[in-house]
Design a protein that fits this description.
The complex is a heterodimer of chains A (204) and B (167). Chain A is α/β, with parallel strands linked by helices. Chain A has two domains: 2-105, no CATH class; 123-203, Arc Repressor Mutant, subunit A (Orthogonal Bundle). Chain A has helices at residues 2-14, 21-35, 72-82, 95-105, 123-131, 143-149, 156-164, 191-203; strands at 41-46, 53-57, 62-66, 87-89, 141-142, 177-178. Chain A has a four-stranded mixed sheet, with helices on one face. Chain B has a single domain (7-155), classed as Butyryl-CoA Dehydrogenase, subunit A, domain 3, CATH 1.20.140. The radius of gyration of chain B is 17 Å and the shape is globular. Classes of the chains: A alpha/beta (204), B mainly alpha (167).
Chain lengths: 204, 167
């Protein structure tokens, strides 16, 4: 038995991968999955002034931007349940989104052109989110003003919850929505992140 | 809401083992193709896999079928599979301290023995699972693995218990 264990260990070592081999195979798998239309969700991370962001995209477009405080593993688990477990890390599908975000954080981009997949928001919340890009870069609007923009002036609290559950923060600018008394209001990525984004836009 | 484990996590956890299985079954040159075919087929079928399935056994079963496809394709080419040991030292050198003869000896085993050794000793599947993949009884799977290990031990002097052991 000891002989068998020793022999099995020796075989395992002899057949182990070359350095970098699994990385190359992974990239090849992601490319083949994309080509076959079975990569339902691709993701990557991006370092930014507001921490490491998780970016996830379906074939239709960017579907989720997540802050590290949301726990990226939990976010991926949620995407698995709500969209599909066919999820792979893949930089290539996220190329455009990552480049645009990098330009934004460098102060060189004011609007986003990357295709968006809105499937994670619905109903009035979705309506609210669709109106947020109307708040210009470097400006802010109150929750009440956004409720008006979305066609339901009384739904101030609903605007708050729409912003709090925005699946595409930064790209869909819920950080530009603040309290009418001048207070910052909440932010899923933390008040500090909201402050950072608003001063970045004010300075550019 | 938490769904099924992401396929990325499956690749991360089982990628190395499946690659060893592929290298054992088809040799180092065709192993990349076998690995890619295996995981692509697994990705396609993954949403339908029951939540309580043994993922490793499932992957090895797919690798078994894909290795047969790859071996058939290779057999149609002019270079015979038996030349894998030479190819290995030329293109894809084993890590230092590893006896390439061991891999060569594994490659020369009869298919059933090589598969049984690979699935039980490299992939860690119980003999019942090995039998399910190979067809036949659990005892036959156990016997094939034991015969294969016996041959490897005799042909590889560096292994304890092998002929000419110098410990």
């Amino acid at each position: 038995m000891t002989d068998e264990t020793e022999l099995a260990r020796e075989l395992t070592r002899a057949l182990s991968e070359a350095p970098g081999q699994l990385g190359r195979l992974h990239a090849r798998l992601a490319a083949a999955a994309r080509a076959d239309g079975i990569l339902d969700v691709a993701y990557r991370t991006l370092d930014s002034p507001i921490g490491t962001l998780l970016l996830a995209a379906t074939e239709r477009g960017l579907v989720r931007v997540a802050f590290s405080c949301e726990d990226h593993d939990a976010v991926l688990g949620d995407l698995s349940a709500r969209i599909s477990p066919r999820i792979l890390r893949d930089d290539i599908r996220l190329d455009v989104a990552a480049r645009e975000l990098e330009q934004y954080f460098a102060g060189g981009r004011r609007t986003f052109d990357v295709a968006l997949d809105w499937r994670l928001s619905s109903g009035f919340r979705s309506t609210v989110l669709h109106h947020l890009p109307e708040i210009a870069y470097g400006r802010t609007a109150s929750y009440a003003a956004v409720a008006q923009l979305a066609g339901n002036p009384k739904a101030v609290r609903a605007v708050g919850s729409a912003c709090a559950t925005n699946p595409l923060p930064v790209v869909v600018p819920c950080h530009r929505v603040v309290r009418s008394d001048g207070g910052m209001g909440g932010y899923l990525g933390g008040i500090e992140a909201k402050r950072t984004l608003l001063s970045l836009e004010a300075a550019a | 809401m938490t769904g099924k484990e992401t396929f990325e996590a499956i690749v991360a956890r089982h990628g190395s083992t499946v690659l060893r299985v592929c290298r054992a079954l088809v040799g180092p040159f065709d192993a990349d193709d076998a690995w890619s075919e295996t995981f692509l087929a697994a990705l396609r079928a993954y949403p339908a896999l029951p939540a309580d399935a043994n993922v490793e056994a499932w992957l090895v079963t797919i690798a078994h079928r894909k290795a047969i496809d790859v071996t058939r394709a290779t057999a149609r080419r002019p270079i015979p599979v038996e030349e894998v040991p030479d190819a290995m030292s030329a293109g894809n050198a084993p890590p230092p301290g590893i006896d390439p003869d061991l891999v060569a000896a594994l490659t020369r085993l009869p298919a059933k023995q090589r598969q049984a050794v690979t699935y039980h000793f490299l992939a860690g599947l119980p003999y019942a699972e090995v039998a399910a993949i190979l067809g036949g009884s659990t005892d036959a799977a156990r016997r094939a693995a034991a015969d294969g290990m016996g041959t490897l031990r005799r042909t590889c002097p560096r292994i304890p218990g092998g002929k000419g052991t110098a410990q």
